[in-house]
Amino acid sequence: MYSQYNIVNFVAGNVGVQMGGWFRKEIKDLDSLQGLKMRIGGIGGMVLSKLGAVPQQIPPSDIYSSLEKGTIDAAEWIGPYDDEKLGLNKVAPFYYSPGWFEGSASLTTMVNKDAWEALPANFKAAFETACNEQTMLSLAKYDALNPGALRKLVADGAKLRYFPKDVMKAAYDKSQELWKELSDSNADFAKIYPSWKTFQEQEASWFRVAESALDNFTFSELGKRS
Known about the structure:
Elements: E1 7-14, E2 21-23, E3 37-39, H1 42-50, E4 54-56, H2 63-69, E5 74-75, H3 80-86, E6 94-97, E7 106-112, H4 113-118, H5 121-155, E8 159-162, H6 165-185, H7 187-209, H8 211-225
Parallel strand pairs: 3-4, 3-5, 6-8
Antiparallel strand pairs: 1-7, 2-5, 2-6
Helix pairs in contact: 1-6, 3-5, 6-7, 7-8
């Protein structure tokens, strides 16, 4: 897809699964989203719009003041480690999980294709290795720092909540609806979506057997001791 813009793209970072955002009021059911003004962009905002919310485009520097003044009712940022720095729990106490609209945020580095092809092979290998290393390091960083930050936020008054089942189900259904709409209207999306969807389904079947089965059991046992 990037080649049409004369670009070579590399994944060079990832923050892992994100949180669902900070809310001034509790989300009790799907009706709680009606008219809710939330700082969120991209596809997540498009899905929320289908659920009755009103997406708002606000720069990170204005999130705190917008919540404090009531200009917006909710905002998503990243996760505990980054959210703690903004002090959002002081102006929107309800901290929701999971971040269904951004299960993983990949950061990418785009390189001019002509410049890339002019590099010697060893330079290319070094660059690709650095990108891969940064991806692994950033994931490890967030996995290591988020737990402590979450504990601090809760100790400081944040009220940890999970989105109600009807919200999660509606968000999933509207997401699938949106994928279809984008696939029908966008040629680039239509090229990517079928293979992406197939891969997602194949991975889900494996994760149910292995990763999720082990994680769910282990977390259940650990929860009994805490």
